[in-house]
Write a structure and sequence with these properties.
30% of the residues lie in helices and 18% in strands. By secondary structure, the chain is of the alpha/beta class.
Length: 159
């Protein structure tokens, strides 16, 4: 997977992510499954840098961790599963999480603008999608922000 920022640019990714059937190991930039959070802390005497959850995760389960983690990775099981959008928005707006929220899974560049609007700051993109498609999606988002808004858009923003 390739880490993509909000400008559609690939980034160097220092994080180590959970891998099926692999034992937990200590690392400076370790992301662990939510179910492994306490185990990691017990084994290594420190908290993990990030937590990996799925879009159907109850935000209440993450509240105690939010002030101790720098990145929350939200996995989308399918590109058409919208629960990850909702979870990110809840973490940003209701719980004021200001760390990195990273999307992972079979996402499409067409979903890029919605990811950004919901509070995502990066995407773990699958290698099958050309990087240029993410860059094009970011450019399209920038162009849409520059266009004059419609009267309906302006009225709905003033509520």
């Amino acid at each position: 997977m390739t880490l993509i920022d909000t400008a559609g640019t690939p980034l160097a990714d220092p994080y180590q992510y959970p891998v099926d059937d692999q034992e937990l190991t200590e690392a400076d930039h370790r992301v662990v499954l939510l179910s492994q959070w306490d185990t990691y802390q017990e084994q290594f005497g420190k908290t993990a840098t990030g937590v990996w959850v799925t879009g159907d995760q109850d935000p209440a389960d993450l509240l105690a961790l939010l002030n101790r983690t720098r990145v929350v990775v939200i996995e989308f099981p399918k590109s058409r599963d919208g629960r990850g959008f909702t979870l990110a928005r809840v973490l940003r707006e209701r719980h004021r999480y200001d760390g990195d929220i990273r999307a992972a899974g079979p996402l499409l560049p067409d979903q890029f603008s919605m990811l950004i609007q919901c509070g995502y700051t990066s995407v773990l993109a699958e290698a099958a999608i050309p990087l240029v498609r993410w860059k094009e999606a970011a450019m399209a988002l920038d162009q849409s922000k520059a266009r004059p808004r419609t009267l309906l858009d302006r009225l709905s923003q003033n509520r």
